[in-house]
């Protein structure tokens, strides 16, 4: 029986194995120690220079999240911009990505994922601030901003090549990585697991058998994506503002219920996470290797999920109706807190307390299967109810991510093409096609491609954040000084 998880279109296994192996080698280079040091180092630098602002001002950040700024200039509300960013971040990374990290790097990956997120909040704050400060008014109420503009305008024209490099990787990430294929692949896996787990109803495509559930999912998701993305940022924002909060609450409540029901197992799960994080249980001589693997997987999947340092979220932040860069920076950083520190942590703990991690090792489960096993066995309900809840959450999370990343990659292309909207229109259709073909691509290759593009996007963005850290600090001090003097209203 042929599985869509084992095939890459209709190529032979030897060819696919070579491609997969090559991609893994590239991924290991991109996500090597230098990039992890750059990500964590940037987070530490910004956290230190901002005086741990991400925790000191977290309450104010949540206040700004729901309170729109009076007379703010932009396309959508701050909350709408945040929901667009959350739409792109809360997706398969929270459900499939966490499971993938735990299975590849062990329980310790959860610790490094959360630690990276704590530092990443300062990074996300800085990105949002710079996006608004250096955004460009395109006329007609449209604003364009993001790393490409704060690199070009903040660092200077001589660095424009770096801005274009980021935008190029952004287009690739949207079309071939995090934006389309990984998301719809996760939706298809969940729907097939619920409607046709034994793959009894198949259709032959490209010489291979695929579940009818998979084919229908690809067609429906591609069609609905087309209906929304053609409407632009306002339609994406309005859809995201409804779906994201609703589905996030359902997912968090479900995970909390599982954790409460299995509360007696939480202490041992936390011990496993800390032991795994520092390689304590590794075999002799393997502690350092286990630690590095857990760190690599945790940081990589954390970035995949919350996108701190990736440079994507500031593209949405630039559209917010605000006159104060700092204010939007604070709103932006709540996205990392919600996405990783709350949702990803709950997914990881759920996998551990339900015994799904051990079951996955025994039965060789991967990706969404690991989380599905946790949902099915975490509460005294039938397997079908648990599978349905996970499928529902995953489908909506991944769908909104598809929408968010369409906006990101379109704006990257708009920058690259000098505002050529005809090219952007053609790209929309390419994006919809990529959504349709996503379920027919192998899981391992899909995640590897996404990881590569993520890493490549992060490099120019992180360089800019380090170079512009003085601007970030100065803007932050100015805002809070004016706020304390009563010169501006909250």
Per-chain topology:
Blueprint: H1 13-30, H2 33-49, H3 53-56, H4 58-66, H5 78-89, H6 92-105, H7 108-133, E1 136-139, E2 142-144, H8 147-155, H9 160-176, H10 181-195, E3 202-205, E4 208-211, H11 212-229, H12 232-261, H13 266-277, H14 287-306, H15 313-317, H16 325-353, H17 356-363, H18 368-377, H19 383-416, H20 421-437, H21 443-467, H22 469-484
Antiparallel strand pairs: 1-2, 3-4
Helix pairs in contact: 1-21, 2-7, 2-21, 4-16, 5-12, 5-16, 5-19, 6-14, 6-16, 6-18, 7-13, 7-14, 7-16, 8-9, 8-21, 9-19, 9-21, 10-11, 10-19, 11-19, 11-20, 12-16, 12-19, 14-21, 16-18, 17-18, 18-19, 19-20
Account of the 3D structure:
With 490 residues, the protein is mostly helical. The protein is 74% helix and 3% strand. It is built from 22 helices and four strands. The strands form two sheets. The chain has a two-stranded antiparallel ribbon with strand order 1-2. A hairpin with a 2-residue loop joins β3 and β4. α9 packs antiparallel against α21, α11 runs antiparallel to α20 and α14 packs across α21. The longest helix is centred in the C-terminal third of the chain and has 34 residues. The N and C termini lie far apart (61 Å).
């Amino acid at each position: 029986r042929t599985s869509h998880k084992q095939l890459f279109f209709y190529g032979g296994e030897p060819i696919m194995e070579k491609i997969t192996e090559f991609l893994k080698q590239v991924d290991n280079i991109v996500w090597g120690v230098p990039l992890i040091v750059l990500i964590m180092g940037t987070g530490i630098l910004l956290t230190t220079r901002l005086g741990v602002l991400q925790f000191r001002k977290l309450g104010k950040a949540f206040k700004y999240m729901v309170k729109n700024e009076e007379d703010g200039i932009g396309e959508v509300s701050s909350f709408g911009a945040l929901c667009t960013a959350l739409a792109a971040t809360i997706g398969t990374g929270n459900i499939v990505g966490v499971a993938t990290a735990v299975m590849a790097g062990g329980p310790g990956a959860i610790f490094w994922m959360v630690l990276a997120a704590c530092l990443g909040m300062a990074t996300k704050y800085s990105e949002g601030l710079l996006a608004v400060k250096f955004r460009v008014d395109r006329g007609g109420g449209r604003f364009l901003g993001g790393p490409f503009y704060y690199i070009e305008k903040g660092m200077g024209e001589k660095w424009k090549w770096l801005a274009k490099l980021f935008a190029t990787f952004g287009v690739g990430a949207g079309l071939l990585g995090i934006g389309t294929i990984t998301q719809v692949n996760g939706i298809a896996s969940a729907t097939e697991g619920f409607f046709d787990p034994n793959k009894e109803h198949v259709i032959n495509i490209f010489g291979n058998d695929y579940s009818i559930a998979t084919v229908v999912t690809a067609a429906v998701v591609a069609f609905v994506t087309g209906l929304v993305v053609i409407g632009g940022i306002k339609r994406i924002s309005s859809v995201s503002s409804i779906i994201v909060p609703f589905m996030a609450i359902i997912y968090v409540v479900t995970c909390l219920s599982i954790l409460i029901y299995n509360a007696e197992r939480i202490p041992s799960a936390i011990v496993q996470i800390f032991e795994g994080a520092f390689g304590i249980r590794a075999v002799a001589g393997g502690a350092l290797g286990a630690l590095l693997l857990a760190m690599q997987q945790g940081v990589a999947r954390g970035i995949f999920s919350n996108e701190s340092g990736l440079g994507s979220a500031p593209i949405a932040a630039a559209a917010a109706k605000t006159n104060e860069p700092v204010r939007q920076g604070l709103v932006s950083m709540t996205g990392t807190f919600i996405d990783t520190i709350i949702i990803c942590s709950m997914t990881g703990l759920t996998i551990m307390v339900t015994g799904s991690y051990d079951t996955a090792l025994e039965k060789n489960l991967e990706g969404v299967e690991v989380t599905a096993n946790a949902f099915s066995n975490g509460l005294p309900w039938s397997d079908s109810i648990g599978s349905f809840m996970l499928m529902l959450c995953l489908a909506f999370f991944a769908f909104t991510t598809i929408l968010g990343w369409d906006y990101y990659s379109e704006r990257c292309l708009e920058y690259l093409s000098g505002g050529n909207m005809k090219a952007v229109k053609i790209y929309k259709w390419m994006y919809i096609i990529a959504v349709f073909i996503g379920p027919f691509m192998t899981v391992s290759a899909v995640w590897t491609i996404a990881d590569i593009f993520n890493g490549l996007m992060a490099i120019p963005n992180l360089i800019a954040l380090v170079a512009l850290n003085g601007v970030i600090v100065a803007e932050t001090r100015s805002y809070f000084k004016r706020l304390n003097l009563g010169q501006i209203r909250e």
